[in-house]
Amino acid sequence: MQIQDFMNSSLYKRRQRINAIMLTLTAVAVVIGLVWLVWILWSLLSKGLPALSVNLFTHNQPTMGEEGGGLKNAIVGSLMMVGTATLITTPVGILAGTYLAEYGRNNTLTRVVRFVNDILLSAPSITIGMFAFILFYFGLGLGGHANSGWSGSIALAIVMLPVVVRTTDDMLKLVPNGLREAAVALGCPYWKMIFMICYRSAKTGMLTGLLLGIARIFGETAPLIVTAVGNNFFSTDMSQRMASLPKVILDFAMSPDDNWRTLAWGGAMLITLFVLFINISTRAIAARGK
């Protein structure tokens, strides 16, 4: 059949109609998604930017009915818990990912660990928060002290861990085996080959995964509701209840107090700017690694 005959056939015209319908549906879906995204961003910018001020970083959260105030206690609490979670997760996640990619490869234990890690990736964060609370309350016998900055950090670390493990595993598997064989053939110990060859080759992807994990836990609210709980006052004591930005935003946004709702928009703006900064950083690092 000639091309001209095929283009005049009913089969070709039916495929053209189906293609046009699918393109139209796809365009409508994109427009619907963009409308909600633009509406959310506009609401955040119009209400969040005016709330950004020096007081937001230098004053603690006010009581209901009080004017002014800031979110200093929540900002410091969030930074401490996210920082602690990052310090816990980074070595554990990188070493676990290294075992999966370099030592375990495709044995039974590795397949089981990867399966469990994938389940943790999609596990509800409130469930992880409950696990951390039960671990501190019953496992460690801390009773009332189970609601603390430490339990919040552990919950956030468990949320972040699967991201670091998965990206480390995937990035190390992308390193060509020829590099490993050349290093080992020259007498380099296997552990030294991993540090000197594999980590250097995969460092961009591994760092990107680490930053994405930090961005994910910075806005997590659910695990902190049952662990750190919150604190109306400034505190750096990790063994006590600790304020956090997501929890304060949740409380203030549902309040009838206008000042609280303004501060909630300011806190939401801070988290958005932080996540945006992390995403730009990861793209810059990934582009530099190419």
From TrEMBL:
Keyword Cytoplasm part of the UniProt annotation: no
GO molecular function, one term: phosphate transmembrane transporter activity
Gene3D superfamilies, A to Z: MetI-like (1.10.3720.10)
Pfam families: BPD_transp_1
Primary residence: membrane
GO terms under cellular component: plasma membrane
Domain ABC transmembrane type-1: residue ranges: 75-286
Transmembrane stretches, start-end: 20-42, 74-98, 119-140, 146-165, 210-234, 262-280
Membrane topology qualifier: Multi-pass membrane protein
Protein name: Phosphate transport system permease protein PstA
Organism: Ephemeroptericola cinctiostellae
Lineage: Bacteria, Pseudomonadati, Pseudomonadota, Betaproteobacteria, Burkholderiales
